[in-house]
Amino acid sequence: MRVLFTTCPGHGHFFPMVPLAWASRAAGHEVMVAAPEGFLPVVIGTGLPGTPSSGPLDRKEIMRPEPTPDRESAVRSAGRGFGRMAAHTLDGLAGIVRSWKPDLLVSEPTEHAGPIAATAGGVPYAVQSIGLRFRPQLHAAAAAGFADVRRPGLDKIDKIDKIDEVAPPALDLDVCPPEFQLPGLGNGRPMRYVPYNGASALPPALGDPLGAPLVCVTAGSFLARDEGVRRLFVDIVDELGRMRVYVALAMDPDLVPLMGRLLDHVVAAGWLPLDLLLPRCALIVHHGGAGTVMTALTHGVPQLVIPYLMDGFDYADQVARTGVGRSLPATAGRDAVREAVAALLDDDGSAAKAAGVAETIAAGPAPARIVPELESIAQGVAA
Protein backbone atom coordinates (compact mmCIF):
# COMPACT_ATOMS: atom_id res chain seq x y z
CA MET A 1 0.00 0.00 0.00
CA ARG A 2 1.17 3.53 -0.80
CA VAL A 3 0.06 6.22 1.66
CA LEU A 4 0.46 9.92 0.92
CA PHE A 5 0.36 12.22 3.96
CA THR A 6 -0.37 15.90 3.26
CA THR A 7 0.16 18.79 5.67
CA CYS A 8 0.27 22.55 5.98
CA PRO A 9 3.80 23.84 6.67
CA GLY A 10 3.48 24.01 10.45
CA HIS A 11 5.06 21.88 13.18
CA GLY A 12 1.80 21.72 15.12
CA HIS A 13 -0.06 20.48 12.06
CA PHE A 14 2.41 17.86 10.90
CA PHE A 15 3.91 16.43 14.10
CA PRO A 16 0.64 14.79 15.30
CA MET A 17 0.60 12.78 12.04
CA VAL A 18 4.14 11.42 12.42
CA PRO A 19 3.24 8.43 14.67
CA LEU A 20 0.64 7.15 12.18
CA ALA A 21 3.09 7.59 9.30
CA TRP A 22 5.74 5.69 11.28
CA ALA A 23 3.24 2.94 12.09
CA SER A 24 2.37 2.63 8.40
CA ARG A 25 6.03 2.26 7.45
CA ALA A 26 6.63 -0.23 10.25
CA ALA A 27 3.79 -2.34 8.80
CA GLY A 28 5.69 -2.51 5.51
CA HIS A 29 3.87 0.17 3.52
CA GLU A 30 5.33 2.91 1.34
CA VAL A 31 4.87 6.35 2.87
CA MET A 32 5.41 9.79 1.38
CA VAL A 33 4.79 13.21 2.96
CA ALA A 34 3.87 16.12 0.69
CA ALA A 35 4.43 19.67 1.95
CA PRO A 36 5.62 23.02 0.56
CA GLU A 37 9.31 22.95 -0.33
CA GLY A 38 10.48 25.13 2.55
CA PHE A 39 8.97 22.74 5.10
CA LEU A 40 10.62 19.59 3.72
CA PRO A 41 13.66 19.77 6.05
CA VAL A 42 11.23 19.40 8.97
CA VAL A 43 9.57 16.44 7.26
CA ILE A 44 12.86 14.72 6.46
CA GLY A 45 14.05 15.36 10.02
CA THR A 46 11.36 12.97 11.27
CA GLY A 47 12.87 10.10 9.27
CA LEU A 48 10.06 10.16 6.73
CA PRO A 49 10.51 10.72 2.97
CA GLY A 50 9.09 13.93 1.58
CA THR A 51 8.18 15.54 -1.72
CA PRO A 52 7.30 19.19 -2.46
CA SER A 53 3.65 20.04 -2.96
CA SER A 54 4.77 23.46 -4.20
CA GLY A 55 7.88 25.55 -4.64
CA PRO A 56 9.04 27.95 -1.93
CA LEU A 57 6.11 29.83 -0.39
CA ASP A 58 6.11 32.93 1.74
CA ARG A 59 4.09 31.58 4.63
CA LYS A 60 3.73 35.03 6.19
CA GLU A 61 2.32 36.46 2.98
CA ILE A 62 -0.07 33.56 2.41
CA MET A 63 -1.26 33.06 5.97
CA ARG A 64 -1.11 36.77 6.96
CA PRO A 65 -1.26 35.90 10.66
CA GLU A 66 -2.87 38.44 12.95
CA PRO A 67 -2.26 37.61 16.62
CA THR A 68 -5.24 39.10 18.39
CA PRO A 69 -7.24 38.68 21.61
CA ASP A 70 -10.42 38.72 19.46
CA ARG A 71 -11.70 35.19 18.76
CA GLU A 72 -13.76 35.83 15.61
CA SER A 73 -11.05 37.86 13.89
CA ALA A 74 -8.49 35.18 14.69
CA VAL A 75 -10.67 32.42 13.19
CA ARG A 76 -11.40 34.38 10.01
CA SER A 77 -7.75 35.31 9.52
CA ALA A 78 -6.46 31.78 10.03
CA GLY A 79 -9.20 30.14 7.95
CA ARG A 80 -8.62 32.36 4.93
CA GLY A 81 -4.91 31.67 5.24
CA PHE A 82 -5.45 27.89 5.15
CA GLY A 83 -7.64 28.34 2.07
CA ARG A 84 -4.99 30.40 0.28
CA MET A 85 -2.37 27.78 1.20
CA ALA A 86 -4.54 25.05 -0.37
CA ALA A 87 -4.94 27.09 -3.53
CA HIS A 88 -1.16 27.39 -3.89
CA THR A 89 -0.45 23.68 -3.29
CA LEU A 90 -3.35 22.07 -5.15
CA ASP A 91 -1.71 21.76 -8.58
CA GLY A 92 1.40 20.19 -7.04
CA LEU A 93 -0.61 17.71 -5.00
CA ALA A 94 -2.75 16.75 -7.97
CA GLY A 95 0.45 16.04 -9.89
CA ILE A 96 1.80 13.87 -7.06
CA VAL A 97 -1.45 11.87 -6.94
CA ARG A 98 -1.23 11.29 -10.71
CA SER A 99 2.46 10.33 -10.77
CA TRP A 100 3.02 8.50 -7.45
CA LYS A 101 -0.42 6.85 -7.52
CA PRO A 102 -1.11 6.48 -3.79
CA ASP A 103 -3.68 3.95 -2.62
CA LEU A 104 -4.73 6.27 0.19
CA LEU A 105 -4.20 9.90 1.21
CA VAL A 106 -4.16 11.12 4.82
CA SER A 107 -4.50 14.84 5.53
CA GLU A 108 -4.76 16.98 8.62
CA PRO A 109 -7.93 19.10 8.97
CA THR A 110 -6.50 22.44 7.83
CA GLU A 111 -4.84 20.98 4.71
CA HIS A 112 -7.63 21.25 2.14
CA ALA A 113 -5.76 20.62 -1.13
CA GLY A 114 -5.06 16.94 -0.39
CA PRO A 115 -8.74 15.92 -0.22
CA ILE A 116 -9.45 17.86 -3.44
CA ALA A 117 -6.56 16.13 -5.25
CA ALA A 118 -7.64 12.74 -3.85
CA THR A 119 -11.26 13.24 -4.93
CA ALA A 120 -10.19 14.32 -8.41
CA GLY A 121 -7.85 11.32 -8.71
CA GLY A 122 -10.34 8.74 -7.42
CA VAL A 123 -8.22 8.04 -4.34
CA PRO A 124 -9.84 7.49 -0.90
CA TYR A 125 -8.67 9.78 1.86
CA ALA A 126 -8.70 9.97 5.62
CA VAL A 127 -8.50 13.02 7.86
CA GLN A 128 -6.56 12.86 11.12
CA SER A 129 -7.37 15.48 13.72
CA ILE A 130 -4.60 17.31 15.56
CA GLY A 131 -6.73 17.90 18.65
CA LEU A 132 -10.08 19.66 18.97
CA ARG A 133 -12.40 19.73 15.98
CA PHE A 134 -12.39 22.99 14.05
CA ARG A 135 -15.58 25.02 14.01
CA PRO A 136 -17.61 25.46 10.80
CA GLN A 137 -16.63 29.16 10.71
CA LEU A 138 -13.00 28.17 10.04
CA HIS A 139 -14.04 25.93 7.15
CA ALA A 140 -16.17 28.73 5.64
CA ALA A 141 -13.26 31.16 5.91
CA ALA A 142 -10.98 28.60 4.24
CA ALA A 143 -13.40 28.27 1.33
CA ALA A 144 -13.33 32.06 0.92
CA GLY A 145 -9.53 32.17 1.07
CA PHE A 146 -9.32 29.41 -1.54
CA ALA A 147 -11.57 31.45 -3.84
CA ASP A 148 -9.27 34.47 -3.35
CA VAL A 149 -6.60 32.63 -5.35
CA ARG A 150 -8.33 30.04 -7.56
CA ARG A 151 -10.61 31.39 -10.30
CA PRO A 152 -13.95 29.55 -10.20
CA GLY A 153 -14.67 27.85 -13.51
CA LEU A 154 -11.09 28.28 -14.73
CA ASP A 155 -8.63 26.85 -12.19
CA LYS A 156 -10.36 23.48 -11.98
CA ILE A 157 -8.87 20.14 -10.94
CA ASP A 158 -11.04 17.59 -12.78
CA LYS A 159 -14.25 19.64 -12.41
CA ILE A 160 -13.52 20.62 -8.80
CA ASP A 161 -12.90 24.29 -8.10
CA LYS A 162 -14.24 24.68 -4.56
CA ILE A 163 -13.23 23.22 -1.21
CA ASP A 164 -16.86 22.22 -0.58
CA GLU A 165 -16.98 19.96 -3.64
CA VAL A 166 -14.76 17.21 -2.23
CA ALA A 167 -16.03 13.75 -1.33
CA PRO A 168 -16.39 12.95 2.40
CA PRO A 169 -13.43 11.20 4.05
CA ALA A 170 -13.39 7.42 4.17
CA LEU A 171 -12.10 7.63 7.74
CA ASP A 172 -12.28 10.42 10.31
CA LEU A 173 -9.57 9.88 12.93
CA ASP A 174 -10.04 11.71 16.24
CA VAL A 175 -7.10 11.99 18.66
CA CYS A 176 -8.99 14.14 21.18
CA PRO A 177 -10.42 12.40 24.27
CA PRO A 178 -14.23 12.69 24.20
CA GLU A 179 -14.46 14.46 27.57
CA PHE A 180 -12.24 17.25 26.21
CA GLN A 181 -13.75 17.52 22.73
CA LEU A 182 -15.90 20.54 21.80
CA PRO A 183 -19.57 19.70 22.40
CA GLY A 184 -21.89 19.46 19.42
CA LEU A 185 -19.24 18.76 16.77
CA GLY A 186 -19.25 14.97 17.04
CA ASN A 187 -16.48 12.43 17.51
CA GLY A 188 -14.58 10.43 14.92
CA ARG A 189 -12.82 7.07 15.09
CA PRO A 190 -10.74 7.28 18.29
CA MET A 191 -6.96 7.06 17.97
CA ARG A 192 -4.51 7.61 20.80
CA TYR A 193 -2.66 10.91 20.71
CA VAL A 194 1.06 10.06 20.68
CA PRO A 195 3.22 13.16 21.25
CA TYR A 196 6.04 13.86 18.84
CA ASN A 197 8.02 17.07 19.29
CA GLY A 198 10.82 16.76 16.75
CA ALA A 199 14.49 15.93 17.12
CA SER A 200 15.81 17.50 20.33
CA ALA A 201 17.53 16.57 23.55
CA LEU A 202 16.59 17.17 27.17
CA PRO A 203 19.20 19.47 28.81
CA PRO A 204 21.13 17.81 31.66
CA ALA A 205 19.90 20.50 34.08
CA LEU A 206 16.38 19.08 33.74
CA GLY A 207 17.39 15.50 34.41
CA ASP A 208 17.79 15.86 38.18
CA PRO A 209 15.37 17.04 40.90
CA LEU A 210 15.45 20.83 41.23
CA GLY A 211 14.09 21.21 44.75
CA ALA A 212 11.19 23.44 43.66
CA PRO A 213 8.31 23.15 41.16
CA LEU A 214 9.29 23.33 37.49
CA VAL A 215 7.00 25.39 35.24
CA CYS A 216 7.24 25.16 31.46
CA VAL A 217 6.56 28.40 29.57
CA THR A 218 6.08 28.38 25.79
CA ALA A 219 4.46 30.39 23.01
CA GLY A 220 4.97 27.62 20.47
CA SER A 221 7.06 27.51 17.31
CA PHE A 222 5.26 30.37 15.54
CA LEU A 223 3.56 32.85 17.88
CA ALA A 224 6.70 33.84 19.77
CA ARG A 225 7.87 35.64 16.63
CA ASP A 226 5.22 38.30 17.23
CA GLU A 227 6.70 41.11 19.32
CA GLY A 228 3.53 41.69 21.33
CA VAL A 229 3.23 38.02 22.27
CA ARG A 230 6.88 37.87 23.17
CA ARG A 231 6.56 40.90 25.48
CA LEU A 232 3.71 39.19 27.33
CA PHE A 233 5.78 36.04 27.83
CA VAL A 234 8.78 38.11 28.99
CA ASP A 235 6.50 39.49 31.72
CA ILE A 236 5.31 35.99 32.61
CA VAL A 237 8.83 34.61 32.95
CA ASP A 238 9.86 37.64 35.00
CA GLU A 239 6.83 37.31 37.26
CA LEU A 240 7.52 33.63 37.88
CA GLY A 241 10.93 34.71 39.15
CA ARG A 242 9.14 36.30 42.11
CA MET A 243 7.73 32.91 43.05
CA ARG A 244 9.50 29.82 44.35
CA VAL A 245 9.56 28.00 41.04
CA TYR A 246 11.99 27.15 38.26
CA VAL A 247 11.19 27.85 34.60
CA ALA A 248 11.91 25.88 31.44
CA LEU A 249 11.45 28.31 28.52
CA ALA A 250 10.60 26.28 25.40
CA MET A 251 11.08 28.38 22.27
CA ASP A 252 13.15 28.86 19.11
CA PRO A 253 16.79 29.34 20.22
CA ASP A 254 17.09 32.30 17.82
CA LEU A 255 14.40 34.11 19.80
CA VAL A 256 15.87 33.48 23.26
CA PRO A 257 18.21 36.53 23.08
CA LEU A 258 15.17 38.71 22.32
CA MET A 259 13.70 37.75 25.70
CA GLY A 260 16.34 39.87 27.43
CA ARG A 261 18.43 38.80 30.40
CA LEU A 262 17.16 35.49 31.75
CA LEU A 263 17.35 35.27 35.52
CA ASP A 264 18.65 32.36 37.57
CA HIS A 265 15.21 30.79 37.91
CA VAL A 266 15.24 29.98 34.18
CA VAL A 267 17.08 26.65 34.08
CA ALA A 268 16.72 25.88 30.35
CA ALA A 269 15.75 27.81 27.22
CA GLY A 270 15.51 26.86 23.54
CA TRP A 271 13.98 23.92 21.71
CA LEU A 272 12.84 21.59 24.47
CA PRO A 273 11.05 18.28 23.77
CA LEU A 274 7.74 18.74 25.59
CA ASP A 275 7.12 14.99 25.59
CA LEU A 276 10.23 14.49 27.73
CA LEU A 277 10.00 17.74 29.65
CA LEU A 278 6.38 17.79 30.84
CA PRO A 279 6.52 14.67 33.04
CA ARG A 280 9.01 16.70 35.15
CA CYS A 281 6.73 19.77 35.31
CA ALA A 282 4.12 20.79 37.84
CA LEU A 283 2.49 23.22 35.40
CA ILE A 284 2.72 24.59 31.85
CA VAL A 285 1.89 28.18 30.84
CA HIS A 286 1.28 28.57 27.12
CA HIS A 287 -0.55 30.10 24.14
CA GLY A 288 -3.13 27.39 23.47
CA GLY A 289 -1.49 25.53 20.60
CA ALA A 290 -2.96 22.12 19.77
CA GLY A 291 0.29 20.17 20.20
CA THR A 292 1.09 21.88 23.49
CA VAL A 293 -2.38 21.25 24.96
CA MET A 294 -2.54 17.65 23.76
CA THR A 295 0.95 16.79 25.02
CA ALA A 296 0.12 18.29 28.43
CA LEU A 297 -3.13 16.29 28.51
CA THR A 298 -1.24 13.12 27.61
CA HIS A 299 1.04 13.57 30.61
CA GLY A 300 -1.65 14.84 33.01
CA VAL A 301 0.01 18.24 33.58
CA PRO A 302 -2.21 21.19 34.66
CA GLN A 303 -2.25 24.13 32.25
CA LEU A 304 -2.60 27.91 32.24
CA VAL A 305 -3.64 29.00 28.74
CA ILE A 306 -3.36 32.56 27.40
CA PRO A 307 -4.73 32.33 23.82
CA TYR A 308 -3.85 34.53 20.85
CA LEU A 309 -4.69 32.70 17.62
CA MET A 310 -7.57 30.75 16.07
CA ASP A 311 -8.33 27.55 17.98
CA GLY A 312 -6.27 28.71 20.97
CA PHE A 313 -9.45 30.27 22.33
CA ASP A 314 -11.30 26.96 22.11
CA TYR A 315 -8.44 25.12 23.83
CA ALA A 316 -8.42 27.73 26.58
CA ASP A 317 -12.17 27.31 27.07
CA GLN A 318 -11.92 23.52 27.21
CA VAL A 319 -9.02 23.58 29.65
CA ALA A 320 -11.08 25.73 32.01
CA ARG A 321 -14.36 23.83 31.41
CA THR A 322 -12.88 20.42 32.14
CA GLY A 323 -10.96 21.67 35.17
CA VAL A 324 -7.53 20.52 33.92
CA GLY A 325 -6.30 24.09 34.30
CA ARG A 326 -7.25 27.73 33.89
CA SER A 327 -7.32 30.35 31.17
CA LEU A 328 -6.64 34.08 31.09
CA PRO A 329 -7.17 36.69 28.38
CA ALA A 330 -4.07 38.11 26.71
CA THR A 331 -4.92 41.42 28.35
CA ALA A 332 -4.48 39.96 31.84
CA GLY A 333 -1.80 41.65 33.91
CA ARG A 334 1.06 40.24 35.95
CA ASP A 335 -1.02 40.00 39.11
CA ALA A 336 -3.60 37.79 37.40
CA VAL A 337 -0.88 35.51 36.01
CA ARG A 338 0.80 35.20 39.40
CA GLU A 339 -2.50 34.42 41.14
CA ALA A 340 -3.46 31.80 38.53
CA VAL A 341 -0.06 30.08 38.72
CA ALA A 342 -0.15 30.04 42.53
CA ALA A 343 -3.68 28.64 42.54
CA LEU A 344 -2.82 25.85 40.09
CA LEU A 345 0.33 24.87 41.97
CA ASP A 346 -1.67 24.68 45.19
CA ASP A 347 -4.77 23.02 43.67
CA ASP A 348 -4.77 19.23 43.71
CA GLY A 349 -8.11 19.23 41.90
CA SER A 350 -6.69 20.33 38.55
CA ALA A 351 -3.89 17.80 38.75
CA ALA A 352 -6.38 14.99 39.52
CA LYS A 353 -8.63 15.96 36.61
CA ALA A 354 -5.65 16.22 34.26
CA ALA A 355 -4.54 12.75 35.37
CA GLY A 356 -8.01 11.41 34.56
CA VAL A 357 -7.87 12.74 31.00
CA ALA A 358 -4.38 11.24 30.63
CA GLU A 359 -5.81 7.84 31.55
CA THR A 360 -8.46 8.16 28.84
CA ILE A 361 -5.81 9.00 26.24
CA ALA A 362 -3.59 6.08 27.29
CA ALA A 363 -6.51 3.66 26.91
CA GLY A 364 -7.18 4.66 23.28
CA PRO A 365 -6.07 2.57 20.28
CA ALA A 366 -2.47 3.23 19.26
CA PRO A 367 -1.72 4.32 15.65
CA ALA A 368 -0.46 0.79 14.87
CA ARG A 369 -3.98 -0.52 15.50
CA ILE A 370 -5.38 1.93 12.94
CA VAL A 371 -3.13 0.80 10.09
CA PRO A 372 -5.27 -2.30 9.26
CA GLU A 373 -8.24 0.04 8.82
CA LEU A 374 -6.23 2.11 6.35
CA GLU A 375 -5.38 -1.10 4.51
CA SER A 376 -9.05 -2.09 4.32
CA ILE A 377 -10.02 1.29 2.86
CA ALA A 378 -7.31 1.08 0.19
CA GLN A 379 -8.14 -2.54 -0.67
CA GLY A 380 -11.85 -1.80 -0.82
CA VAL A 381 -11.35 0.79 -3.53
CA ALA A 382 -8.82 -1.34 -5.43
CA ALA A 383 -10.99 -4.49 -5.36
Task: Give the fraction of residues assigned to helices.
Answer: 40-55%
Beta-strand portion reads 5-15%
CATH superfamily of the largest domain: Glycogen Phosphorylase B
Main β sheet profile: 7 strands, parallel
> What integer value in Å does the Rg equal?
21 Å
Order of helices and strands: EHHEHEHHEHEHEEEHEEHEHEHEHHH
Describe the structure.
With 383 residues, this protein is an alpha/beta fold. The protein has 2 domains: 210 residues, Glycogen Phosphorylase B (Rossmann fold); 160 residues, 3-Layer(aba) Sandwich (Rossmann fold), CATH 3.40.50.2000. The strands form 2 sheets. It has a 7-stranded parallel beta sheet with strand order 3-2-1-4-5-6-7, sandwiched between helices. The chain has a 6-stranded parallel beta sheet with strand order 10-9-8-11-12-13, with helices on both faces. α3 links the parallel β2 and β3. α2 crosses α14, α5 packs across α7 and α10 packs across α13. It is globular and about 60 Å long. It starts with a strand and ends with a helix. 48% of the residues are buried. The model has no long low-confidence stretch (mean pLDDT 90).
Give descriptors for this structure:
transferase; Rossmann fold; EryCIII-like_C; 7-stranded parallel sheet; alpha/beta; 6-stranded parallel sheet; 14 helices; 383 residues
